[in-house]
Design brief:
One of its GO terms (cellular component) is plasma membrane. There is one protein chain. The protein contains 16 helices and 16 strands. By secondary structure, the protein is α+β, with helices and mostly antiparallel strands. Strands 8, 9, 10, 12 and 14 form a five-stranded antiparallel beta sheet that branches.
């Protein structure tokens, strides 16, 4: 006897992605967001073109192993400063998050900034939210092809400009522009321009909220930096519930218009509480405030506030007073300490470096008059941007002297290996290794001076 076929149910482990059509938000936070867009992009796109002492103001010249930061020249030996900058960035992120949640993500993160720019291109080419939804639903025709082509053409052009600018921080941008115009870019420059352009085009044009939700690790561990007094975008449930399509006296202030959802770049409903998807852009605050203005209700149904403020009804002044809590004070103190140490070390660094390397071929040899001779190679770097002459000396053993030239002239930011021969009179120094000190000092500035220890070998009889 045959059995009836059983129905098969499919259980999806992951929900398919729903395309988000974010409505444009207008208001004070949207204005601040665009201010951040303009400021960050003026710095990013303009800085490579800024001249400084006849060169590019900011240039990470990997080929020459020199990093130019305005009036400062850093070498590979100065990698410690990069490590300190990363520590400063980390503590700054911790501090901002403890005070105001993901405010960095919502206003200044490159992903947010470029997504905002790409969405502006999208609105200009395809229209506002409803028009974009209709365009995607309709079959392909000449109008749809034209609008989609215009959007992607603008995206690609902007992404290429971004990739070109990024490479301009590592290759002199004027040289890069001339080579690009002459179609003579090298293979590595071409690769990195296209790679960064593709990353910008893909992340800001296609992935968007998926970068913030899935790819960015910050969304996952941000909760460890929050506490009940951190400012976050929140929905005032006591005031808003129960929801009603009309602003009736018996209902809450929320009229369930869903504008807060429509403007959200990650597609969440802030009324469901704090979610890791929320980037703190406050677009929902602007949307809700505009609705409250239209129905004649007070603003602030959705606002930047704290869990404690919602729970016990804190005033604005009470919220401000709770900012200076132990967590914030610790982050602030550590950040101030690191920044002070960083700037002190950077401003007081000597623009001269020297490494002393003994000649490994011959430990020591006896020359005329019974003198003992050792040979060294001094790697000398002038890290300043002016040519200088230096005087070389050695001490540590009675009668020790340099028999080669004791003056070195280096051009600006030049590094050179200098062979040096040192002799000690017969009978001076103990048999075996003796500590000596090489001193290099600028002839025009006694403050530019470095010392380096080395060993002088005296043969055993």
């Amino acid at each position: 006897m045959s059995q009836a076929p059983q129905s098969v149910s499919v259980i999806r482990m992951y929900a398919p992605r729903t395309h988000i059509y974010a409505r444009e938000a207008k208001g004070r936070y949207a204005t601040w967001r665009w201010v951040c867009v303009w400021l960050t992009q003026l710095v990013f796109y303009g800085l490579p073109w800024l001249p400084w002492n006849g060169r590019q103001a900011v240039l990470f010249d990997l080929a020459a192993r020199k990093f130019y930061l305005f009036g400062i020249v850093l070498w590979p030996q100065d990698l410690i400063y990069l490590a300190v900058l990363l520590i400063v960035a980390a503590f700054s992120l911790f501090l901002f998050t403890a005070i105001a949640g993901r405010v960095w993500c919502g206003f200044a993160c490159p992903q947010t900034v470029y997504t905002e720019i790409f969405m502006w291109f999208e609105r200009k080419a395809e229209g506002e939210r409803s028009a974009r939804m209709r365009l995607d639903r309709q079959p392909w025709n000449l109008e749809k092809v034209a609008r989609k082509s215009a959007k992607h053409g603008a995206w690609i052009a902007f992404a290429l400009w971004t990739g070109f600018t990024f490479v301009g921080y590592f290759t002199p941008v004027r040289t890069l522009a001339a080579e690009t115009a002459a179609l003579a870019l090298g293979p590595w420059q071409t690769f990195w321009v296209l790679f960064y352009s593709l990353a910008t085009y893909g992340n800001a044009g296609w992935l968007r909220e998926q970068v913030c939700r899935t790819m960015c690790p910050y969304a996952r561990f941000q909760s460890a930096m929050f506490d009940a007094d951190s400012l976050i975008v929140s929905y005032d449930r006591q005031r808003g519930e129960p929801r009603s399509s009309k602003a009736a006296k018996t209902s809450g202030a929320c009229i369930d218009c869903s504008l807060c959802v429509q403007v959200c770049p990650t597609g969440i409903d802030i009324r469901n509480g704090l979610q890791y998807d929320c980037i703190g852009c406050a677009a929902c605050v602007d949307a809700c405030d505009s609705v409250m203005d239209k129905i004649g209700a007070p603003r602030g149904l959705v606002r930047f506030t704290t869990d404690n403020a919602l729970r016990i009804g804190l005033s604005t002044g009470a919220i401000a007073r709770r900012v200076l809590r132990p967590r914030v004070l610790v982050y602030s103190g550590l950040l101030l300490l690191v920044i002070t140490a960083f700037w002190t070390a950077l401003l007081n660094r000597t623009p001269l470096k020297m490494d002393v390397i003994r000649d490994r071929g011959v430990l020591a040899r006896e020359v005329e008059d019974g003198m003992i001779e050792n040979v060294y190679r001094l790697q000398v770097m002038n890290t300043s941007e002016q040519p200088r002459r230096y005087r070389l000396a050695v001490s540590g053993i009675d009668g020790i002297r340099i028999t080669t030239a004791d003056e070195v002239r280096l051009e600006a930011t030049e590094s050179r290996a200098v062979p040096v021969t040192v002799r000690v009179p017969h009978g001076k120094g103990s048999a075996g290794s003796n500590k000596v000190v090489f001193t290099l000092e600028a002839t025009d500035d006694a403050g530019v001076r470095v010392e380096e220890k080395a060993m002088f070998h005296v043969p055993r009889n």
